[in-house]
Amino acid sequence: MAVQLTILASGSSGNRAYLETDDARLLIDAGLSARQIRQRLLGIGRTPEKLSGILVTHEHSDHVQGLGVLASKLQIPIYCNRLTREAIELQFRETRFDFRLFSTGASFAVGDVLVDTFSVPHDAYDPVGFLIRTADGNVGFLTDIGHATKLVVERLRPAHALLLEANHDLKLLQDDTKRPWSVKQRIVSRHGHLSNEAAASLAGQIVSADLAHLYLGHLSADCNRPDLAHRAVSDSLLRLGATHVRVETATPSVPCATLCLGKASESVIGRDGGDTPFSVGPCPSPRAAY
Ligand SMILES: [Zn+2]
Ligand SMILES: [Zn+2]
Protein backbone atom coordinates (compact mmCIF):
# COMPACT_ATOMS: atom_id res chain seq x y z
CA MET A 1 0.00 0.00 0.00
CA ALA A 2 1.23 3.51 -0.80
CA VAL A 3 1.73 6.12 1.90
CA GLN A 4 -1.39 8.17 2.45
CA LEU A 5 -1.13 11.73 3.70
CA THR A 6 -4.05 13.92 4.71
CA ILE A 7 -3.59 17.45 6.00
CA LEU A 8 -6.60 17.41 8.31
CA ALA A 9 -6.29 21.11 9.16
CA SER A 10 -3.67 23.81 9.15
CA GLY A 11 -3.85 27.42 10.27
CA SER A 12 -3.05 29.65 13.21
CA SER A 13 -6.07 28.16 15.00
CA GLY A 14 -5.03 24.52 14.78
CA ASN A 15 -2.75 22.07 13.05
CA ARG A 16 -2.94 18.34 12.51
CA ALA A 17 -2.05 15.94 9.73
CA TYR A 18 -2.49 12.19 9.31
CA LEU A 19 0.00 9.86 7.67
CA GLU A 20 -0.59 6.16 7.13
CA THR A 21 1.61 3.33 5.89
CA ASP A 22 1.23 -0.45 6.12
CA ASP A 23 2.54 -0.42 9.68
CA ALA A 24 2.18 3.12 11.05
CA ARG A 25 -0.77 5.46 11.56
CA LEU A 26 0.48 8.80 12.78
CA LEU A 27 -1.04 12.10 13.72
CA ILE A 28 1.37 14.99 13.32
CA ASP A 29 0.39 17.57 15.94
CA ALA A 30 -2.99 17.66 17.64
CA GLY A 31 -4.30 21.21 17.41
CA LEU A 32 -7.99 21.87 18.15
CA SER A 33 -10.22 19.60 20.18
CA ALA A 34 -10.16 15.82 20.41
CA ARG A 35 -13.75 15.79 19.14
CA GLN A 36 -12.77 17.71 16.03
CA ILE A 37 -9.78 15.45 15.41
CA ARG A 38 -12.05 12.41 15.71
CA GLN A 39 -14.50 13.93 13.25
CA ARG A 40 -11.77 14.73 10.73
CA LEU A 41 -10.36 11.20 11.02
CA LEU A 42 -13.82 9.67 10.62
CA GLY A 43 -14.17 11.81 7.50
CA ILE A 44 -11.38 9.78 5.90
CA GLY A 45 -12.59 6.47 7.32
CA ARG A 46 -10.15 6.36 10.23
CA THR A 47 -10.47 6.46 14.03
CA PRO A 48 -8.18 7.77 16.79
CA GLU A 49 -8.24 4.34 18.47
CA LYS A 50 -6.08 2.95 15.67
CA LEU A 51 -3.35 5.58 15.91
CA SER A 52 0.20 4.31 16.44
CA GLY A 53 1.29 7.64 17.84
CA ILE A 54 1.14 11.42 17.80
CA LEU A 55 4.24 13.36 16.78
CA VAL A 56 4.40 16.77 18.45
CA THR A 57 6.47 19.61 16.99
CA HIS A 58 6.11 21.93 20.01
CA GLU A 59 3.81 22.81 22.89
CA HIS A 60 1.83 25.79 21.54
CA SER A 61 -1.89 25.23 21.95
CA ASP A 62 -2.62 25.20 18.21
CA HIS A 63 -0.51 22.01 18.11
CA VAL A 64 -1.39 20.21 21.36
CA GLN A 65 -4.92 21.24 22.29
CA GLY A 66 -6.42 17.84 21.50
CA LEU A 67 -3.87 15.83 23.48
CA GLY A 68 -5.64 16.05 26.85
CA VAL A 69 -8.59 13.92 25.88
CA LEU A 70 -7.25 12.11 22.83
CA ALA A 71 -3.87 10.86 23.97
CA SER A 72 -4.53 10.38 27.65
CA LYS A 73 -7.90 8.63 27.37
CA LEU A 74 -6.76 6.30 24.60
CA GLN A 75 -3.16 6.14 25.85
CA ILE A 76 -1.80 6.88 22.40
CA PRO A 77 1.99 7.30 22.53
CA ILE A 78 3.15 10.90 22.22
CA TYR A 79 6.50 11.36 20.49
CA CYS A 80 8.25 14.58 21.53
CA ASN A 81 11.48 15.83 23.10
CA ARG A 82 12.04 16.29 26.83
CA LEU A 83 11.45 20.03 27.05
CA THR A 84 8.26 19.76 25.02
CA ARG A 85 7.06 17.01 27.35
CA GLU A 86 7.67 19.26 30.36
CA ALA A 87 5.75 22.09 28.70
CA ILE A 88 2.86 19.75 27.83
CA GLU A 89 2.75 18.48 31.41
CA LEU A 90 2.50 22.07 32.66
CA GLN A 91 -0.50 22.64 30.39
CA PHE A 92 -2.25 19.35 31.19
CA ARG A 93 -1.65 18.97 34.92
CA GLU A 94 -2.78 15.67 36.42
CA THR A 95 -3.17 14.10 32.99
CA ARG A 96 -1.21 10.92 32.41
CA PHE A 97 0.38 10.54 29.00
CA ASP A 98 2.41 7.77 27.39
CA PHE A 99 5.45 9.79 26.30
CA ARG A 100 8.12 8.39 23.97
CA LEU A 101 10.99 10.84 24.09
CA PHE A 102 13.46 11.60 21.33
CA SER A 103 16.49 13.87 21.34
CA THR A 104 16.23 16.76 18.92
CA GLY A 105 18.33 15.94 15.88
CA ALA A 106 17.93 12.19 16.33
CA SER A 107 15.85 9.80 14.23
CA PHE A 108 13.49 7.16 15.54
CA ALA A 109 11.28 4.44 14.10
CA VAL A 110 7.53 3.99 14.44
CA GLY A 111 6.36 0.83 12.72
CA ASP A 112 7.79 0.88 9.21
CA VAL A 113 8.65 4.61 9.08
CA LEU A 114 11.74 6.49 10.20
CA VAL A 115 11.23 9.96 11.63
CA ASP A 116 14.07 12.48 11.32
CA THR A 117 13.85 15.39 13.76
CA PHE A 118 15.57 18.75 13.51
CA SER A 119 15.59 21.97 15.46
CA VAL A 120 13.72 25.03 14.16
CA PRO A 121 13.95 28.65 15.35
CA HIS A 122 10.60 29.45 17.03
CA ASP A 123 9.58 30.83 20.43
CA ALA A 124 8.83 27.50 22.09
CA TYR A 125 10.86 25.30 24.49
CA ASP A 126 12.50 23.03 21.91
CA PRO A 127 10.53 23.20 18.63
CA VAL A 128 11.25 20.72 15.86
CA GLY A 129 10.37 19.86 12.30
CA PHE A 130 9.98 16.33 10.96
CA LEU A 131 10.94 14.41 7.87
CA ILE A 132 9.08 11.11 7.82
CA ARG A 133 10.90 8.58 5.67
CA THR A 134 9.01 5.66 4.22
CA ALA A 135 9.72 3.04 1.60
CA ASP A 136 7.29 4.91 -0.65
CA GLY A 137 8.58 8.46 -0.26
CA ASN A 138 9.42 11.15 2.28
CA VAL A 139 7.10 13.70 3.85
CA GLY A 140 8.32 16.88 5.56
CA PHE A 141 6.56 18.99 8.18
CA LEU A 142 7.73 22.53 8.80
CA THR A 143 5.36 24.94 10.50
CA ASP A 144 6.16 27.59 13.11
CA ILE A 145 9.59 28.75 12.08
CA GLY A 146 10.89 32.30 12.41
CA HIS A 147 13.55 32.13 9.73
CA ALA A 148 15.15 29.64 7.39
CA THR A 149 18.30 27.86 8.52
CA LYS A 150 20.81 25.79 6.60
CA LEU A 151 19.93 22.79 8.75
CA VAL A 152 16.25 22.97 7.88
CA VAL A 153 16.98 23.21 4.16
CA GLU A 154 19.37 20.26 4.32
CA ARG A 155 16.98 18.07 6.29
CA LEU A 156 14.01 18.73 4.03
CA ARG A 157 15.71 18.40 0.66
CA PRO A 158 14.77 14.68 0.39
CA ALA A 159 11.04 15.45 0.77
CA HIS A 160 8.59 14.29 -1.89
CA ALA A 161 5.72 16.10 -0.16
CA LEU A 162 6.09 18.97 2.28
CA LEU A 163 3.88 21.03 4.58
CA LEU A 164 5.47 24.48 4.81
CA GLU A 165 4.37 27.47 6.83
CA ALA A 166 3.26 30.61 4.98
CA ASN A 167 1.90 32.50 7.96
CA HIS A 168 1.30 36.10 6.98
CA ASP A 169 1.38 38.73 4.32
CA LEU A 170 3.65 41.49 5.60
CA LYS A 171 1.34 44.31 4.49
CA LEU A 172 -1.80 42.71 5.94
CA LEU A 173 0.07 42.15 9.21
CA GLN A 174 1.30 45.72 9.24
CA ASP A 175 -2.22 47.08 8.62
CA ASP A 176 -3.89 44.72 11.12
CA THR A 177 -5.70 46.63 13.87
CA LYS A 178 -6.41 43.67 16.19
CA ARG A 179 -2.82 42.93 17.16
CA PRO A 180 -0.72 45.20 19.37
CA TRP A 181 2.71 46.23 18.12
CA SER A 182 4.45 43.81 20.52
CA VAL A 183 2.58 40.82 19.05
CA LYS A 184 3.40 41.91 15.50
CA GLN A 185 7.04 42.18 16.49
CA ARG A 186 6.93 38.66 17.89
CA ILE A 187 5.36 37.27 14.71
CA VAL A 188 7.95 38.82 12.38
CA SER A 189 10.91 38.08 14.70
CA ARG A 190 13.52 35.45 13.93
CA HIS A 191 11.69 33.13 16.35
CA GLY A 192 8.19 33.90 15.11
CA HIS A 193 6.54 32.84 11.86
CA LEU A 194 7.35 32.90 8.15
CA SER A 195 5.83 35.54 5.90
CA ASN A 196 4.69 34.56 2.41
CA GLU A 197 7.85 36.08 1.00
CA ALA A 198 10.05 34.15 3.43
CA ALA A 199 8.15 30.93 2.69
CA ALA A 200 8.64 31.55 -1.04
CA SER A 201 12.36 32.01 -0.53
CA LEU A 202 12.63 28.91 1.66
CA ALA A 203 10.62 26.81 -0.81
CA GLY A 204 13.10 27.88 -3.46
CA GLN A 205 15.98 26.62 -1.32
CA ILE A 206 14.33 23.31 -0.44
CA VAL A 207 12.90 22.41 -3.83
CA SER A 208 14.47 19.44 -5.60
CA ALA A 209 13.54 17.28 -8.56
CA ASP A 210 11.88 14.95 -6.05
CA LEU A 211 9.56 17.48 -4.44
CA ALA A 212 6.19 16.92 -6.09
CA HIS A 213 3.62 18.37 -3.70
CA LEU A 214 3.93 21.44 -1.50
CA TYR A 215 1.24 22.33 1.02
CA LEU A 216 1.23 25.87 2.37
CA GLY A 217 -0.05 25.88 5.93
CA HIS A 218 -0.42 27.77 9.20
CA LEU A 219 -1.93 30.75 7.37
CA SER A 220 -3.07 33.55 9.66
CA ALA A 221 -6.83 34.03 9.41
CA ASP A 222 -6.53 37.83 9.73
CA CYS A 223 -3.17 38.59 8.17
CA ASN A 224 -3.04 36.34 5.13
CA ARG A 225 -5.11 35.05 2.24
CA PRO A 226 -4.71 31.72 0.43
CA ASP A 227 -4.36 33.43 -2.96
CA LEU A 228 -1.55 35.70 -1.70
CA ALA A 229 0.39 32.81 -0.15
CA HIS A 230 -0.12 30.62 -3.20
CA ARG A 231 0.96 33.33 -5.62
CA ALA A 232 4.09 34.28 -3.67
CA VAL A 233 5.35 30.70 -3.46
CA SER A 234 4.24 29.59 -6.95
CA ASP A 235 5.89 32.62 -8.56
CA SER A 236 9.13 31.90 -6.71
CA LEU A 237 9.12 28.26 -7.86
CA LEU A 238 8.25 29.24 -11.43
CA ARG A 239 11.14 31.68 -11.54
CA LEU A 240 13.37 28.73 -10.65
CA GLY A 241 11.80 26.60 -13.35
CA ALA A 242 10.34 24.23 -10.76
CA THR A 243 7.13 23.63 -12.69
CA HIS A 244 6.87 20.05 -11.43
CA VAL A 245 5.79 21.10 -7.92
CA ARG A 246 2.07 21.16 -7.24
CA VAL A 247 1.32 23.91 -4.70
CA GLU A 248 -1.80 23.63 -2.52
CA THR A 249 -3.00 25.84 0.31
CA ALA A 250 -4.24 24.07 3.45
CA THR A 251 -7.00 25.57 5.59
CA PRO A 252 -8.14 25.04 9.19
CA SER A 253 -11.73 24.33 8.18
CA VAL A 254 -11.56 21.70 5.43
CA PRO A 255 -9.15 18.75 5.15
CA CYS A 256 -7.06 18.53 1.97
CA ALA A 257 -7.70 15.62 -0.37
CA THR A 258 -5.64 12.59 0.63
CA LEU A 259 -2.34 12.33 -1.20
CA CYS A 260 -0.73 9.02 -2.15
CA LEU A 261 3.00 8.50 -2.36
CA GLY A 262 4.26 5.30 -3.85
CA LYS A 263 6.66 3.54 -6.13
CA ALA A 264 6.68 5.05 -9.57
CA SER A 265 4.28 3.76 -12.17
CA GLU A 266 2.77 5.10 -15.34
CA SER A 267 0.84 7.54 -13.09
CA VAL A 268 3.90 9.60 -12.17
CA ILE A 269 2.78 13.19 -12.40
CA GLY A 270 4.43 16.39 -13.42
CA ARG A 271 7.92 15.08 -14.08
CA ASP A 272 10.12 15.96 -17.01
CA GLY A 273 13.02 13.68 -16.25
CA GLY A 274 11.02 10.57 -15.43
CA ASP A 275 13.87 9.01 -13.46
CA THR A 276 12.29 9.26 -10.02
CA PRO A 277 11.47 6.01 -8.27
CA PHE A 278 8.43 7.61 -6.61
CA SER A 279 5.07 8.95 -7.61
CA VAL A 280 2.93 11.47 -5.77
CA GLY A 281 -0.70 12.12 -6.58
CA PRO A 282 -4.31 11.95 -5.45
CA CYS A 283 -5.33 8.71 -3.75
CA PRO A 284 -7.66 6.59 -5.85
CA SER A 285 -9.56 5.38 -2.76
CA PRO A 286 -8.64 7.56 0.19
CA ARG A 287 -11.79 6.82 2.12
CA ALA A 288 -11.48 3.05 2.33
CA ALA A 289 -12.37 2.20 5.91
CA TYR A 290 -10.61 -0.39 8.01
ZN1 LIG B 1 1.46 27.09 15.45
ZN1 LIG C 1 4.12 27.84 17.61
Fold blueprint:
Layout: E1 3-9, E2 16-20, E3 25-28, H1 34-43, E4 53-55, H2 61-64, H3 67-74, E5 78-80, H4 82-91, E6 99-101, E7 107-110, E8 113-119, E9 128-134, E10 137-142, H5 150-156, E11 161-165, H6 170-175, H7 181-188, H8 196-206, E12 213-217, H9 226-239, E13 246-249, E14 259-263, E15 278-282
Parallel strand pairs: 3-4, 4-5, 5-6, 10-11, 11-12, 12-13
Antiparallel strand pairs: 1-2, 1-14, 2-3, 7-8, 8-9, 9-10, 14-15
The structure holds zinc ion (ZN) (2 copies).
Descriptive account of the structure:
The structure is a single chain. This protein is an alpha/beta fold. It contains 9 helices and 15 strands. The strands form 2 sheets. It has an 8-stranded mixed sheet with strand order 6-5-4-3-2-1-14-15. It has a 7-stranded mixed sheet with strand order 7-8-9-10-11-12-13. Helix 1 (34-43) links the parallel strand 3 and strand 4. Helix 8 runs parallel beside helix 9. It is globular and about 45 Å long. Mean pLDDT is 92; it is low at 266-274 and 286-290.
Task: Fill in the keyword field for this structure.
290 residues; alpha/beta; globular; 9 helices; seven-stranded mixed β-sheet; binds zinc ion
In total, how many beta strands?
15
How far is the first residue's CA from the last residue's CA?
A: 13 Å
Structural class based on helices, strands and sheet pairing: alpha/beta
| DSSP strand content | 25-35%
What integer is the average pLDDT? 92
Shape: globular
Strand order, sheet with most strands:
6-5-4-3-2-1-14-15
Q: Give unreliable regions as ranges.
A: 266-274, 286-290
The set of bound ligands, ions and cofactors reads:
zinc ion
Count of DSSP helices? 9
What is the makeup of the main sheet? 8 strands, mixed
Give the % helix: 25-40%
